[in-house]
Write a structure and sequence with these properties.
Helix content is 50%, strand content 14%. It has helices spanning 13-28, 32-39, 43-50, 58-68, 73-83, 89-99, 118-127, 132-145, 163-167, 173-187, 239-251, 255-266; strands at residues 102-107, 156-162, 192-197, 211-216, 219-226, 229-234. The chain has a six-stranded mixed beta sheet with strand order 3-2-1-4-5-6, sandwiched between helices. The protein starts with 12 loop residues before the first helix and ends with a helix. The protein folds into two domains: 13-83, Orthogonal Bundle (434 Repressor (Amino-terminal Domain)); 89-114 and 149-269, Endonuclease, Chain A (2-Layer Sandwich), CATH 3.30.870. The longest helix is centred in the N-terminal third of the chain and has 16 residues, at 13-28. The chain has 270 residues and is of the alpha/beta class. Helix 2 (32-39) crosses helix 3 (43-50). Strand 5 and strand 6 form a beta hairpin. The chain is elongated.
Length: 270
């Protein structure tokens, strides 16, 4: 049997958590199956956490502390790990997005990546300072992400955008006209809903910033992005973002009204 690779404890706090979980599990005489039963998952999930392929979430950390009698060690380590910048955030975000059954997005600045045309995505990449080659690579990554929307079992995608997103001329009139036409096409798909918060809403919860919540049978993960890095928020700590999404939704137009507003904005780019 092949030896299981060990996480490098010098690479991240998550690797330390992985190693410590295995150490304390074995010291307590627990098998992976037994620990999984105590923290609410199967043996293979425990194995992936111990190899650092998955992260221990806050709820699991509390249960692991109780089962292994570690005095709150894992709960504390996970709290600190979640606060630290993670160099693997981009890939991890894409992996979670690819397996989500429901994706909720609020975007206050630009068209969300899953809804962008190649030309719109390229204009954003070039504006960020990327060269032609890097911009093309970024576009390819973004288009590959969008494949989840047309697969056999696509996720439910609920998107709320601010009206100003429709007005900001990324890439020029032709790019914007095609981008808004693309939004209308997507909005007719049975698994996609697109709604717009109008200017008339005034001050509302979304002015705090953009975010998304990725959900599947394992729970919810919120994702927040800032220049150069992103942050993933797991489990119970992600719940406030679902509440925030619902509160923003109260201010948004309904589906038909949103489509009509998008059509009206397309006239700006004739």
């Amino acid at each position: 049997m092949a030896m299981r690779s060990q996480p490098d404890p010098m690479s991240s706090l998550w690797a330390v958590i992985a190693l410590q979980l295995r150490f304390h599990r074995e010291r307590a005489g627990f098998t992976g199956t037994q620990l999984g039963e105590r923290i609410g998952c199967v043996r293979s999930t425990v194995s992936r956490i111990e190899s650092s392929a998955l992260k221990l979430d806050p709820k699991q950390a509390v249960l692991a502390d109780e089962a292994l009698q570690t005095g709150g060690l894992f709960a504390a380590l996970v709290v600190h790990a979640l606060r630290e910048p993670d160099g693997h955030w981009s890939k991890e975000h894409r992996d979670i997005e690819a397996t989500a059954s429901t994706i909720r997005i609020f975007e206050a600045v630009v068209i969300p990546g899953l809804l962008q045309t190649p030309e719109y995505a390229r204009a954003l990449a070039l504006a960020s300072g990327a060269g032609e080659e890097a911009a093309q690579a970024a576009v390819e990554v973004r288009m590959n992400r969008q494949a989840i929307l047309s697969r056999k079992d696509p996720p439910l995608l609920w998107v709320i955008i601010a009206e100003t997103v429709l007005e900001w001329p990324v890439g020029g009139p032709e790019v914007m006209r095609e981008q808004l036409a693309h939004l209308l096409e997507l909005a007719d798909m049975p698994n996609i809903g697109i709604r717009v918060v109008p200017r008339a809403a005034g001050a509302y919860k979304g002015l705090d910033g953009s975010f998304k919540v990725l959900s599947n049978a394992s729970g919810d993960v919120a994702y927040l992005e800032s220049p150069g890095q992103g942050r993933l928020v797991y489990s119970l700590e992600a719940r406030p973002y679902l509440d925030r999404y619902d509160r923003i939704g109260i201010k948004a137009l309904n589906d038909d009204q949103s489509k009509e507003l998008i059509r009206t904005k397309m006239e700006l780019y004739q």
